[in-house]
Amino acid sequence: MSNFRASGYWYDEDSSVPQAVDLLNLMRRYREAERSMRAQTRGSMGMNETDMSALRFLLAAHRKGKILRQRDFAEELCISNASVSALIDRLCRDGYADRVVHPADRRSVGIVPTEYSDTEVRGTLHKMHERMIEAAGTLSESERLATAKFLNAMIRSVQITDEPGHSALRDSTMPQSTASSRQGHGT
Predict the structure, then answer these.
(1) Which of 21, 79, 158, 171 has minimal Cβ neighbours within 10 Å of its Cβ?
(2) Which backbone phi and psi does 89 adopt, to 5 degrees?
């Protein structure tokens, strides 16, 4: 292998089997492309990174039928209550969220996405998500299994845990949600 290839400055696209360093370089390039896309999306929506993370969290909870409280945002985003309050104020001011009486506790305030937020996010990200699904759809079953195994191993390699006896043994051939649900059922 040449020094250029090992250093990441050269990727031999004609090679039939990428080396380990080639995969890591491709991941780096993907992260850079995704970071650029997210910055462009935030800019077009007039949001900062925390606001965008909060909006994704809000929309995901809404799809599951869950109404969030401010404390849910604080826990998810690891930010203070004061920061959450300012964040929710911005989301409401910009038309992405509304404060409502929480149905489970009428003394509590719930945060729900507006129809505008769902439409705006879908409109902004729809084409990109279609291209991503299309790219994943080109893989055979064995290629998807190998990719899932690789990505799960990469996730574990960068996760830091201080838990004594923490086991990174997880079925790396399936998505984490499936592995987690299987672990919860004693299999």
Answers:
(1) 158
(2) -55, -45
